[in-house]
């Protein structure tokens, strides 16, 4: 089972003695375990292969952070690669179109289309104050239209009045027209499914798509069906212009295999997750949550992150104090740059200060190793006195420092400016009620 993959990985790798870079042999053994776990979770073979290749490339030679074990390090790499495969950031439903915006729901019978239609309608109505009309195009099961009407009443959303004898396409046209005349923002079209993918189903869905010209086509799939869900998705994406996937019954899925394959195989983003039968059982898709589920735990990932953060925690703490009291000098900045090159030093430090979590990523992104090394060289070219008294660095000193660091004076200016900016920011944060101040704007 998937549960405990992280434990197994740690087990394998932690038997190995010594620290430092991960060797190819260590990583190979861990990758066999990853591969087995993914296959057990019903992840598509092609995805398993490219996934393990990616992890292997990243893990071999990776430095093991002080205070975590090699196993934990690999778990972290697996986690990050999972998140990437799942499609980093969540993609929201798109309503950038002239209302009424049509949303077409497609999928097999029993996948959760009708339930999800009502869930989405409820959310749009309650959270975004949108006026929503729902229509069932399910002409095969008489109870299906009734089911949507009942759910509509329950969540307070209008449903299109039922007219007997109309085809799915006719109902779709009528729904869009009624939504237009009624001033609705969104019109949701809930189609009939089949027990399996067949030509009649595909033809009907494609015809409805042509008639309704939906802005979003959401494919609803049951995550419990694992690889089948992915095969279904492949069939649908070949025939209609699927814009997003809703994975249902995630509440019962301890494995996450469908989620992992879905994005990689279909190229379509998972937009929402169904997490219960209830009308509020709808969640935005967060790749890291699924990654944690796949790994069977969240602890090791956060542990490694913490370890990275707490590199030289004591020193960091002391600097944090100095920052807040406005005494953050260039010596401190240099220490920070050193730590940053050691992975996550800045993040560790920032993590100790209130209200800055959101900023960490930005900071890390803005500074690559080359830039950091350049900045460090500039500070190294200063005298200790200059580092403690950055305000006293005049034009002459700037030129000397630049020369010593092998760059131009503008590089020195940049470092001084960065230091000033950070010192000011820190001082502001230390002051009363300043938590929401400068950071809020940056986050
Ligand atoms: P449809 O045939 O695609 O319209 O599927 P339905 O919406 O009628 O759903 C079929 C069954 O799955 C119903 O009993 C739903 O309550 C249930 N269901 C739908 N989504 C979820 C979900 O996310 N979690 C759970 N546990 N059950 C769900
Ligand atoms: Mg239905």
Give descriptors for this structure:
Signal_recog_part_SRP54_M_sf, Four Helix Bundle (Hemerythrin (Met), subunit A), 434 Repressor (Amino-terminal Domain), binds magnesium ion, elongated, EC 3.6.5.4, 58% helix, 443 residues, alpha/beta, binds guanosine-5'-diphosphate, 3 domains, SRP54_N_sf, disordered C terminus, 8-stranded mixed beta sheet, Rossmann fold, single chain
* CATH class annotation of the largest domain: Alpha Beta
Write the element-wise H/E pattern from the N-terminal end onward.
HHHHEHEHEHEHEHEHEEHHHHHHHHHHH
Strand order in the largest sheet: 3-2-4-1-5-6-7-8
Number of strands: 8
CATH architecture of the largest domain: 3-Layer(aba) Sandwich
pLDDT averaged over residues = 80
Share of residues in strands = 5-15%
Spatial shape: elongated
The CATH homologous superfamily of the largest domain is named: P-loop containing nucleotide triphosphate hydrolases
For the record, give the distance between the C-alpha atoms at the N and C termini, rounded to a whole number: 39 Å
Low-confidence stretches: 343-362, 431-443
Number of helices: 21
Structure classification: alpha/beta
Main beta sheet strand tally, sense and closure:
8 strands, mixed
Indicate the radius of gyration in whole angstroms.
28 Å
- Which range best describes the helical content: under 10%, 10-25%, 25-40%, 40-55%, 55-70% or over 70%? 55-70%
Named CATH topology of the largest domain: Rossmann fold
The distinct ligands, each listed once, are:
guanosine-5'-diphosphate, magnesium ion
């Amino acid at each position: 089972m998937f549960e405990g993959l992280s434990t197994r990985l740690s087990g394998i790798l932690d038997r190995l003695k010594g620290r430092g870079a991960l060797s190819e042999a260590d990583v190979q053994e861990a990758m066999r375990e990853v591969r087995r776990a993914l296959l057990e979770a019903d992840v598509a073979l092609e995805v398993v292969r490219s996934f393990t290749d990616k992890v292997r490339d990243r893990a071999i030679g990776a430095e093991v952070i002080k205070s975590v074990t090699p196993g934990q390090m690999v778990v972290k790499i697996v986690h990050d690669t999972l998140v990437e495969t799942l499609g980093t950031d969540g993609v929201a439903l798109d309503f950038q179109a002239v209302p009424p915006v049509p949303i077409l729901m497609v999928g097999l019978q029993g996948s959760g289309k009708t339930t999800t239609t009502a869930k989405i309608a409820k959310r749009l109505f309650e959270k975004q104050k949108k006026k929503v009309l729902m229509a069932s195009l399910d002409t095969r099961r008489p109870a299906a239209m009734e089911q949507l009407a009942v759910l509509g009443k329950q969540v307070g959303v209008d449903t299109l009045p039922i007219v007997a004898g109309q085809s799915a396409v006719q109902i779709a046209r009528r729904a869009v027209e009624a939504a237009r005349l009624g001033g609705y923002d969104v019109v949701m079209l809930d189609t009939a499914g089949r027990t399996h993918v067949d030509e009649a189903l595909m033809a009907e869905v494609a015809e409805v798509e042509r008639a309704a010209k939906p802005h979003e086509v959401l494919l609803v799939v049951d995550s419990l069906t694992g690889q089948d869900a992915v095969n279904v998705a492949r069939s649908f994406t070949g025939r209609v212009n699927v814009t997003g996937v809703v994975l249902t019954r995630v509440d019962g899925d301890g494995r996450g295999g469908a989620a992992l394959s879905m994005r990689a195989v279909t190229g379509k983003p998972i937009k929402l997750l169904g997490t219960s039968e209830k009308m509020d059982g709808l969640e935005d898709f967060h790749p890291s949550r699924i990654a944690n589920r796949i790994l069977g735990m969240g602890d090791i990932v956060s542990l490694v992150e913490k370890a990275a953060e707490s590199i030289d925690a004591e020193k960091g703490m002391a600097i944090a104090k100095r920052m807040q009291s406005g005494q953050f000098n260039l010596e401190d900045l240099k220490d920070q740059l050193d730590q940053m090159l050691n992975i996550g030093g800045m993040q560790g430090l920032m993590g100790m200060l209130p209200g800055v979590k959101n900023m960490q990523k930005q900071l890390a992104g803005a500074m690559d190793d080359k830039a950091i090394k350049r900045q460090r060289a500039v500070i190294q070219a200063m005298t200790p006195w200059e580092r403690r008294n950055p305000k006293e660095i005049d034009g002459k000193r700037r030129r000397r420092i630049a020369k010593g660091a092998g760059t131009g004076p503008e590089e020195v200016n940049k470092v001084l400016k960065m230091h000033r900016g950070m010192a000011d920011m820190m001082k502001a944060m230390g002051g009363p009620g300043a938590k929401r101040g400068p950071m809020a704007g940056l986050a």
